[in-house]
Write a structure and sequence with these properties.
seven-stranded mixed sheet, single chain, alpha/beta
Amino acid sequence: MMRDVSSFSTYNYGDALYWDARYVEEAGSFDWYQRYSSLRPFVRHYVPTSSRVLMVGCGNALMSEDMVKDGYEDIMNIDISSVAIEMMSKKYEYIPQLKYMKMDVREMSAFADDSFGSVIDKGTLDSLMCGNDAPISAAQMLGEVSRLLKPGGTYMLITYGDPKVRMPHLMRPVYNWKIMLYIIPRPGFHKPAPGSSSSSCAYLEPVPITENGLLPVDYVLQDPDSHFIYICKKMDENSELNEDSSSYPLRVDKSL
C-alpha cells in the first residue's frame, strides 16, 4: 500500500499564483479532508486550549473559527495566498483570537524559534508533495515547523499520505519527534454492518507502527481512502521516547 499523487499532479500546488486564482474562483469556505467536528477528539487531546497554535495553509477553511468556538484562545493562520489572507482577515477582523499573515511555510523567519505550542496542518504538506521539487519543499517546511515548535509541542498532520510516503519525511532524527498515528475514515464512509467486529470508535485508538514507522504487514484499512493523522511531539534532550500517557486511546465528549 502506497498512496501519493505527487507524480500525477498537473498543477504546482506550492505556487501562490495557483492558489490566488483558485480562491478568486471559489470564494466560499472549504475544509480539506475533515471538518473540525471529526477532528475534535484529536485536537482537544493533543492541543491545549491555551496553546499558541499555528495553522499552516489555512486557506478559506472554517477549522480555526470552529476551534475558537470550542475555547481556543490564540490561533495564528498563515497561507501563501494573499487572496485567502485578505479574505479571511476581513471576515474575522472582529475575532481577536484569530490572526492572519501571508507566508510561505517553507520560510517562516518572521517567527522566532520555539514560538508555538502546536502546529496544525490539514493538507499543506500534501500540497507541497504535489508541487515542484517536492522532497526539498517538504524538508524546508518540516524543518521550519520543528524550529517553531516548543519542546513538548505537537505538530498535527492530517493527510491522505500513508506511512510509506510520509514517515520518511517525518522521521528525520534532526526533528527529534515522537510520532503516533491515527487513521480516520473519510467523511461519508459507510461503517461496517451491525454485528461486525469493527468498533465505531476504533479510529480513536493509536495505530501500532513498526520500528521503521510502517503499518504492520497484516494491517487492513477499514476505509481504503482513509485519512492519516500523525501526531509529532517535539522531545527535548531529557525526554524519554518510549512511554507517554498521551498515546492512550482518546475519549469522546458526548455532551457536545
